[in-house]
Structures are given as C-alpha cells and as structure tokens.
C-alpha cells in the first residue's frame, strides 16, 4: 500500500520536481497550489505526510500548518516545510505551529526523501 503525500507550493515547477522525486520513490502525491487549496484536499482521505512551502498567496504555510493541526484527522500528520526561508525566527514559528522538519530550497531530492522517509507515518 503506497503512502500519500500532500505537496503544497504556489510554484508549479517546485510541485513538479517534488512530485517526480516522491513518485519515483513510490509515494502517491496530491498537490495543493496554496494553503487554502490544500486544506480543501484534506477531506478525510489518509495523508501520511505534508510538504508545504511557507510563502504562498491566499494562505501562507504557517497558517496552513496551524489550520491542519485543528483537523482531528490530520492533527498528527507530520509536516515538512520546504522553503527559501532560512531565518531562525521563521523556523521557530513553523515549529511552534507544528512543522516537524525544515528543508531549505534549493534542495537535493535525496535530502528531501531522507526527511520524508524518517517522518512518513506507518
């Protein structure tokens, strides 16, 4: 049974690169174009991990993490922030919201997959 990962980024090219890496490793991928769109995708289906950008229109990544943690079905779903933000203050804000890992762009697919395999829920 393959694991499902929700990838949230307003950049289609980033979603594509992340999606190719994840699918290549055997994961199912759902895509969201921003936090608001991604929340709609959290409709009760099983999601084993979420990878989210921080800076997005409509709903940024930190707000998205906070909103996700309010949903009973997804309260314990691990979230990796994938972002150009490397400031400690942003990282702390992300961790406080509930993000489990922080991967800075540009990233190596292997580095991201290592973080994914550590965090993906059984």
From TrEMBL:
Location of the Response regulatory domain: 4-120
InterPro entries, alphabetized: Bact_response_regulator, CheY-like_superfamily, Sig_transdc_resp-reg_receiver
Matching Gene3D superfamilies: 3.40.50.2300
Superkingdom of the organism of origin: Bacteria
Entry keywords, A to Z: Phosphoprotein
Pfam families: Response_reg
Range of residues in the leader sequence: none
Stated name of the protein: Response regulator
Sites bearing 4-aspartylphosphate, chain numbering: 53
Residue ranges crossing the lipid bilayer per the database entry: none
């Amino acid at each position: 049974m393959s694991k499902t990962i929700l990838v949230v980024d307003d950049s289609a090219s980033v979603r594509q690169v992340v999606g190719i890496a994840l699918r290549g490793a055997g994961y199912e991928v759902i895509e969201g174009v921003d936090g608001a769109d991604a929340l709609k995708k959290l409709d009760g289906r099983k999601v084993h991990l979420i990878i989210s950008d921080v800076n997005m229109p409509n709903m940024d990544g930190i707000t998205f993490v906070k909103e996700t943690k309010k949903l009973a079905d997804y309260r314990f779903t691990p979230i990796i922030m994938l972002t150009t933000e490397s400031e400690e203050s942003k990282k702390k804000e992300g961790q406080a919201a509930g993000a489990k890992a922080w991967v800075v762009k540009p990233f190596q697919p292997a580095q991201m997959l290592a973080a994914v395999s550590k965090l993906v829920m059984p």
